[in-house]
Amino acid sequence: MQTLTSHRQADPDTSAPGKVWFVGAGPGDPELITVKGRALIERAGAILFAGSLVSEAATRWAPAGCVIVDSKDMTLEQMTAWLIEQAGRCATVVRLQTGDPGLYGALIELVQPLDAAGIAIEVVPGVSSAMASAAAAVESLTLPEVTQTVIFTRVEGRTPMPAGESLEALAGHHSTLCIFLSITLLGRVTAALTAAGWSQDAPIVVVHKASWPGEEKIVRGTVATIQALCREAKIVSQAMIIASPTLGARQWTTLAKSKLYDASFTHRFRRASVPASTLTSGTP
Ligand code: SAH
């Protein structure tokens, strides 16, 4: 457990028992926190942040006098005890998590003891690293007539995968896969894609430290090459693996256009400006 200090001025914060806010800090760039998340940090009496990924946002926006603690060496019980103790002391307690708190963030395990202690909580969503990685690579995770589905998953590590959720089974949909927590198991990822019938030429993008100023790395490869390319780039942590039939579409010369912006398509906000005879489907 590591305590940090901040140089901003503290607002008076007296109305304990307070509320614990689970705030998504975003993927790394401190400017990718939401306006609401930042406002909560600016008035927080105590912040528990999850490791180096989010320390920057915490120290940049927190007021002076705010107790800022890194949870990286704490057990779940120590974390909930700390949050309960701080809620007894100040009005606004922030648990700052990477990306969005609802993805691989132990959110419910932290919330249940607070519920049991009668502490009010609220969750503020954050920009997930999946979205930041797609943005960094200028990729769309969905494309008309290519795939309209995104699966957020991981390969089995110490956390077992529930039945029916093996990567091979999920890859069988041939939709977009955003694979978290799996960069050290990239060989298993490519083996699962191969077993599910993906071609060796199918594109894969790996984004390391998406949105981190000066530290982001984007590696583009295929099922056959991505492992060697990531090894060469020395990417062993904090990386998102995106496998998708949409990858590289920025360079495609033929593209099925979204119906939403089609001149012949009428929807709730706009009437068609050309006859509907060219329409092939009724929904955007
Ligand atoms: N709640 C987080 C995910 C936490 S799990 C979110 O919504 O993004 C941690 C995993 O997220 C890492 O193993 C990595 O796969 C991914 N990750 C987190 N930050 C990342 C970043 N800046 N760039 C790429 N991947 C990242």
What percent strand? 15-25%
Strand order in the largest sheet: 1-4-3-5-2-6
* CATH architecture name of the largest domain: 2-Layer Sandwich
How would you state the average pLDDT, rounded? 89
The major pleated sheet works out as: 6 strands, mixed
How many runs of DSSP E, i.e. beta strands? 11
Number of domains: 3
- Low-pLDDT windows of residues: 277-284
Q: Cα-atom Rg, whole angstroms? A: 22 Å
Going by CATH, the homologous superfamily of the largest domain would be Tetrapyrrole methylase, C-terminal domain
Q: Which term fits the overall shape?
A: globular
Helix content: 10-25%
CATH topology of the largest domain: Methyltransferase, Cobalt-precorrin-4 Transmethylase, Domain 2
- Ends distance: 50 Å
Describe the protein's architecture and organization:
The protein is α/β, with parallel strands linked by helices. It folds into 3 domains: 8-127, Tetrapyrrole methylase, N-terminal domain (Cobalt-precorrin-4 Transmethylase, domain 1, 3-Layer(aba) Sandwich), CATH 3.40.1010; 130-250, 2-Layer Sandwich (Methyltransferase, Cobalt-precorrin-4 Transmethylase, Domain 2); 252-284, no CATH class. 25% of the residues lie in helices and 19% in strands. The protein has 8 helices and 11 strands. It has helices at residues 35-42, 52-61, 76-87, 107-116, 129-136, 167-171, 186-195, 226-232, and strands at 2-4, 19-24, 46-49, 67-70, 92-97, 120-124, 150-154, 176-180, 203-208, 217-222, 239-243. The strands form 2 sheets. Strands 1-4-3-5-2-6 form a 6-stranded mixed β-sheet, sandwiched between helices. Strand 9 and strand 10 (217-222) form a beta hairpin. Helix 3 crosses helix 4 (107-116). It is globular and about 60 Å long.
